[in-house]
Specification:
- The complex is a heterodimer.
- Chain A has helices at residues 3-34, 43-72, 78-99, 106-146, 149-154, 163-167, 183-214, 217-232, 235-256, 267-290, 294-302, 307-336, 339-344, 362-371, 379-413, and strands spanning 158-159, 179-180.
- By secondary structure, chain A is mostly helical.
- Chain A has two domains: 3-138, no CATH class; 179-413, MetI-like fold, CATH 1.10.3720.
- Chain A has a two-stranded antiparallel ribbon.
- The longest helix of chain A has 41 residues, at 106-146.
- The longest helix of chain B is centred in the first third of the chain and has 44 residues, at 5-48.
- In chain B, helix 11 (242-266) crosses helix 13.
- Chain B folds into two domains: 50-148, no CATH class; 167-384, Orthogonal Bundle (MetI-like fold), CATH 1.10.3720.10.
- Chain B has helices at residues 5-48, 77-82, 85-88, 90-97, 114-120, 129-140, 150-154, 167-198, 203-217, 220-232, 242-266, 270-278, 283-311, 315-319, 340-348, 354-384; strands at residues 53-62, 105-111, 144-148.
- The radius of gyration of chain B is 30 Å and the shape is extended.
- A three-stranded antiparallel β-sheet of chain B has the order 2-1-3.
- Chain B has 16 helices and three strands.
- The chains are: A mainly alpha, B mainly alpha.
- Chains A and B meet through helix 4, helix 7, helix 8, helix 9 and helix 10 of A and helix 1, helix 8, helix 9, helix 10 and helix 11 of B.
- Chain B: It comes from Billgrantia gudaonensis.
- Chain B: GO terms for molecular function: phosphate transmembrane transporter activity.
- Chain B: Keywords: Cell membrane, Membrane, Transmembrane, Transmembrane helix, Transport.
């Protein structure tokens, strides 16, 4: 029999057993209660308890078996595993029915199980973080066994070119040895991030100041969701916009000034990324500025400061930790942004300070390394994980610092909605 | 040195001018952001709207013996130059399915090739001068015309721009989102319920909370690396399938749903809980029968927003191989599929001019879906929002 059919049969039998358990449990509880004995729980609760004791252990056994097969590589024939689960289910059914007694707290038992299920669900987010960390770290370690960590961090030439030959056992045929110096990639990443921040921070911050300090209520309720639209546009759309519309404009403008710009220049993705990030900064800064206590504004105005001076010298300094925290989050977002740079920035690792030249970023190389027809074992594929590790470490640090700053702000002014 | 009143009032005017300047500059910044938005949508509309129209040509078809092998034999050689090759290839099959057609003639509208289409829309086209004249003549006679592009909405991907459509990607998106929602919604709601209603305030709870906030800020491409290393390489989930794509996106959407659900749960006033406890409900009964139903609108809104976010995501899906070339619509969770943003990405990489408008057309469809989803979320919130 096919595995699919086996699984269908298994689910069918388990479902039938569950139904049997439900009705038998309820019938027994109803019978006991009809005898006039006070019970700790309702018949339905006993019924659900018997269902849990039937299906729970059975599902656990099959899940355990699946994990043993995956992790230890032991092969347990599927029919045996499923049959064992069903036997456990039948055992659970008898135990469950036997537990339908007046002095048994069925509701408490069910709620204990529910609580553990909720805990398990909450742990999945932890597993996700560990999953990301482990998957990246293990593959990155394999990469660093092939190429030295020091060369990776300090090398200025990224040329994975011939690494696939080494993976195929023909290393000596390669014209030149593969080089994995990540400095040009990080230089490109920081260049594009810097351009994005030059666009996003002034515009986002000023827009937030306008919305929270000057704008009439009506403008505010309209402007905030409109700005959020910018954040909701998929990045692949921004990438297309940057490559097809913005890059030619940049080339044209640069040409007007007699400069020579590449169509894959760093300015186009940078500017478009900045536009994308404006709402991040504006909406967080807006919240922070709004939670600066009004007493500070009143005090400043009472001393004869103008509205503008109050904002510049009182409100902004008070909100600064929150604004910095928003900017750090924005930087972290820009560093990890992928689609815009994949579509609009160059592929060529290029160590330069001229933003009009094409340059590549960490995320572009990750995508390039993992979408080719290369073997998974090759150094180029594994280099994607090494780059991912650095990206993970940098964004994690930025996020944590940002969280700490916003917490300091929150404690200083005792606001709870941040 | 003491200042005269004139000095002071001049200084005051200066200060007020500076204050006003800040107002105008900050207003300008907001206006600039709005201007970007308007420019962006105008650009996408002007590029994408032509994609919803496609050139069709009226040709005489003569189903002769030769057409059984070579579709183009059924047409005049002049017509064959401007008809899409995808249609020519259909003719032998049509004759095989319906032998009675043999020997008959027919006049019908068929798909013109991409170059004719681009020429009619005034874009760059590879048509020769004589072909352009022939097309112009047929336009005069009403034999070539732009019509609503049904192909775009009913077909999968194709290397011929006139034949390429978004249907396969749309189906793939639906399948992927089903997986995402089926995983992320229950787990997200359960996590939020645990953290808000059950969890003791201990170390583990704090770690989970910090961790969730951190997950929300991790670059999406790293989720792709997780999907590749763990789901595909370790668990052996089929590459490029909606299953693996949906699982990867589910992990990404999880923090959004958790955070939204927690906010919704927190907005349910404690008096509700106290009342329920007061009549003897257990903790779980309070949550199930009172708190969750009241928080449901907020949870739905958050989930829809999370779904919209996942729907526009491309980077992790590229890593797990969901940028495959999918010409046929298939509704399977384990076979290779593509999604709308990935289709946009694929088309953006095609060299032909005609694909630019297909890309922008796909983007318009994607944006329309996202705007619809977000509008639903907003309306839901407006309709069911309760002030306690």
């Amino acid at each position: 029999m096919q595995n699919d059919q086996l699984l269908a049969l298994f689910s069918g039998v388990l479902l039938a057993l569950g139904l049997v358990a439900f009705f038998m449990g309820r019938a027994k509880a109803a019978r006991v209660r009809a005898d006039g004995v006070a019970m700790h729980a309702q018949p339905d609760q006993y019924a659900w308890f018997t269902v849990l004791s039937t299906a729970g252990p059975a599902l656990l056994v099959s899940a355990l078996g699946a994990f043993v097969m995956l992790l230890l590589g032991a092969s347990i024939p599927l029919p045996y595993l499923l049959a064992a689960s069903l036997i456990v289910a039948a055992g659970g059914l008898t135990v469950g029915i036997a537990q339908v007694r007046p002095d048994f707290h069925a509701r408490k038992a069910i709620e204990r199980v529910i609580r553990w299920v909720l805990v398990a669900a909450a742990l999945i987010s932890i597993f996700t973080t560990f999953g990301i960390l482990f998957s990246i770290v293990f593959e990155a370690l394999r990469f660093f066994q092939m190429h030295s960590f020091w060369d990776f961090v300090t090398g200025t030439v990224w040329n994975p070119g011939a690494s696939f030959l080494a993976a195929a056992g023909r290393a000596e045929e390669g014209a030149s040895a593969a080089q994995f110096g990540s400095v040009p990639l990080f230089a490109g990443t920081f260049m594009i991030t810097a351009i994005a921040m030059l666009v996003a921070i002034p515009i986002g911050l000023l827009a937030a100041i306008y919305m929270s300090e000057f704008a009439p209520q009506r403008v505010r309720t309209l402007a905030k969701p409109t700005l959020e639209v910018l954040a909701g546009i998929p990045t692949v759309v921004y990438g297309f916009f940057a490559a097809i519309t913005v890059a030619p404009i940049i080339v044209g403008v640069a040409g007007f000034f007699g400069l020579d710009a590449s169509f894959n220049n760093a300015v186009a993705p940078g500017v478009v990324m900045g536009i994308m990030i404006i709402p991040f900064i504006s909406s967080l800064s807006d919240d922070v500025i709004n939670s600066v206590p009004d007493s500070m504004r009143q005090g400043s105005l009472a001393l004869g400061m103008t509205h503008g001076e109050t904002i510049r010298d009182v409100v902004i300094p008070a909100a600064l930790p929150g604004i910095i925290s928003a900017s750090l989050l924005a930087v972290s977002r820009a560093l990890g942004e992928t689609m815009i740079v994949v579509m609009a920035a160059g592929m060529r690792p290029n160590l330069t300070a001229n933003p009009l030249e094409d340059m590549t970023t960490v995320t572009v190389r990750i995508v390039a390394a993992l979408t080719g027809d290369l073997e998974f074992e090759s150094a180029e594929t594994l280099s994607a994980f090494a780059l991912g590790l650095v990206l993970f470490a940098v964004t994690l640090t930025l996020n944590l610092v940002s969280v700490l700053m916003i917490r300091r702000f929150r404690e200083k002014y005792r606001v709870n909605n941040l | 040195m003491s200042q005269t009143f004139d000095d002071i009032s001049a200084q005051l005017r200066r200060r007020h001018r500076r204050s006003a300047r800040l107002k105008w500059i900050s207003m300008g910044a907001l206006g600039l952001a709005g201007l970007f938005l308007v420019l962006f949508f105008a650009d996408m509309l002007s590029k994408g709207l032509p994609a919803f129209q496609q050139a069709y040509v009226q040709v005489e078809l003569e189903y002769n013996e030769d057409a059984q092998r070579m579709g183009r034999e059924a047409m005049e050689p002049e017509d064959a130059k401007i008809v899409s090759r995808s249609f020519e290839r259909l003719i032998p099959g049509m004759l095989r399915d319906d032998p009675d057609l043999l020997g008959t003639t027919e006049t019908r509208w068929v798909l013109a090739n991409g170059e004719v289409d681009q020429y009619l829309k005034g874009h760059r086209s590879k048509l020769s001068e004589t072909e352009r004249q022939a097309v112009d003549e047929k336009v005069e006679n009403g034999q070539v015309a732009l019509k609503f592009n049904t192909t775009f909405f009913s077909q999968g991907d194709s290397k011929m721009p006139e034949r390429a459509g978004i249907m396969a990607a749309a189906v793939g998106t639906v399948m992927t989102m089903l997986v995402t929602l089926a995983i992320a919604f229950p787990i997200g709601v359960m996590t939020a319920v645990y953290l808000e209603e059950f969890a003791p305030d201990n170390r583990l709870t704090q770690i989970i909370e910090i961790n969730i906030n951190n997950l929300a800020a991790i670059p999406s491409i790293l989720f792709g690396l997780l999907g590749l290393a763990i789901f595909i390489n370790f668990f052996g989930v089929p590459r490029s399938s909606p299953l693996v794509g949906g699982m990867t996106l589910a992990l990404m959407t999880l923090p959004v749903i958790i955070i939204a659900t927690r906010t919704a749960l927190r907005s349910v006033p404690d008096s509700i809980r106290h009342a329920a406890f007061g009549v003897g409900c257990s903790r779980w009964q309070v949550v199930r029968d009172h708190v969750l139903p009241l928080a449901m609108p907020g949870i739905m809104t958050g989930s829809i927003i999370g779904l919209a976010q996942a729907m526009g995501e491309t980077a992790p899906l590229i890593i797990v191989g969901m940028v495959a070339f999918i010409p046929d619509v298939s509704a399977s969770f384990t076979q290779a599929a593509t999604v709308l943003p990935a289709q946009v990405f694929t088309w953006a990489g095609e060299p032909e001019q005609a694909f630019v408008e297909k890309t922008a057309g796909g983007i318009l469809v994607l944006l329309a879906i996202l705007i619809f989803l977000n509008a639903t979320a907003v309306i839901l919130r407006k309709k069911f929002e309760r002030r306690w």
